[in-house]
Amino acid sequence: MTEKNKVALITGITGQDGSYLAEFLLSKAYEVHGIMRRASVFNTERIEQIYQDPHQSHRRLFLHYGDLSDASNLNQLIKIIKPDEIYNLGAQSHVKVSFEIPEYTANTDALGTLRLLDAVRGSGVKTKIYQAGSSEMFGQATQMPQTEATAFNPASPYGAAKVFAHHICKIYREGYGMFICNGILFNHESPRRGKTFVTRKITTGIANILSGKQEKIYLGNLEAKRDWGYAPEYVEAMWLMLKQDKPDDYIIATGETHSIREFLDAAFRLVNLNNWEKYIGIDPAYYRPVEVNLLLGDYSKAKKLLDWQPKVKFAELVKIMLEADLKQAGLDNQKFIQHLPNHSRNGAGIK
Questions:
Q1: Would residue 308 count as lying in a domain?
Q2: 348 band by pLDDT with thresholds 50, 70 and 90
Q3: In the predicted model, what is the mean pLDDT of residues 41-70?
Q4: Active-site positions?
């Protein structure tokens, strides 16, 4: 079978990563199948541009209703689709929300992964599997920067569920000889990031402030530091993992860490609002019961074995997201966006 007619199955295809991955795989001439949950609102806006593709790549995109909590549905879909590759991106992925719905988070993110692995094993379909891990598995990390050998120390139901998924993938890989790669992806953002996530909350908030629709952006812990990358680059890393001869686990990160305060400073500076504090309110409701103050990834293994490294760094990422939200709000980017300073790509981290 050549790469031109490979078949991929993506859980969580309507999310940020799923939409970018679908576009990427279609550009590689894959036939792409996506699982989406049934809801009263048709949540496909992130993949609508595929259906507007002049090259008609939507003719190789197929959507199926399904859910990681439904084992019989997963079994049926895998037997029908017979995918060469499976990308398990479906999850309840909001860390703060996982404290409010811990059982649902565990059922989807932890047991959902187990259901998927069992469905593949029971189907007899020979496939390669990518499992979406998270830097939140490190939680209150015991080592800086975090590598593939760093001990997990999750500080949320989401992080704990992802740790279970990570380990069950390793068990099935070693116990049943399945080709399963765990990608430990650090925070990755884009204009398609959900609006409840802090980075997008900031960029949409600025657009609303400039258009007179909002006075303040309410946030929680401004001192939390994260390793922020660009989502379209990270989905390519997922694909590269499944191109290797042997399955393995990889950290995907930028090697830089920046605080939410730094994100605010960079974003507001771009629109020439240097006194951003007047537009920010602190709401205790946005603090987590257990805070994770610093995450920083070492992607040297991915660089060596996958020949992957990040290109879009922090300041450029902020600019990309802010420009997109200003445009969506009907504002003129040329009027509001300032030029990036020469030092804007620098950040505290590893080289």
A1: no
A2: very low
A3: 73
A4: 134, 136, 158
| Percent of residues in the chain assigned helix, strand, coil, to nearest 5 | 45, 15, 40
Domain with 132 in it: what CATH number? Answer: 3.40.50.720
- Classify residue 72 as exposed, middle or buried by CB count within 10 Å of its CB (0-12, 13-18, 19+): exposed
List CB contacts of 275: < 8 A, sequence separation 6 or more: none
Same domain, 63 and 203: no
Q: Which of 109, 178, 134, 176 is nearest to 292 (CA)?
A: 134
Amino acid at 250: Y
Which of the four pLDDT bands, split at 50, 70 and 90, describes residue 343?
very low
**Structure token pair of residue 50:** 């595929």
Residues 185 and 207 both lie in one domain: no
Residue 144 belongs to a domain: yes
Token pair recorded at residue 67:
């859910």
Q: What is the pLDDT of residues 195-241, one digit of tens each?
A: 889 999 999 999 999 999 999 999 999 999 999 999 999 999 999 99
Residue 19, token pair as written in the block: 């939409």
Q: What strands, in cross-sheet order, belong to the sheet with 256-259?
A: 225-226, 256-259, 348-349
pTM attached to this predicted model: 0.88
Q: Are residues 130 and 207 in the same domain?
A: no
Helices (H), the chain: 16-27, 48-51, 71-81, 95-100, 102-105, 112-123, 157-176, 198-210, 231-241, 260-270, 300-305, 314-328, 333-336
**pLDDT tens digits, 112-168:** 999 999 999 999 999 999 999 999 999 999 899 999 999 999 999 999 999 999 999
The reply to whether 275 and 142 lie within a common domain is no
305 domain-assigned:
no
- Residue 329: domain span: 198-226+258-294+316-349
Contact between 320 and 312 under an 8 Å Cβ cutoff? The reply is: yes
pLDDT in tens, 79-125: 999 999 999 999 998 898 999 999 999 999 999 999 999 999 999 99
Q: Are strands 85-88 and 7-11 parallel, antiparallel or unpaired?
A: parallel
Number of separate domains in the chain:
2
* 310 belongs to a structural domain: no
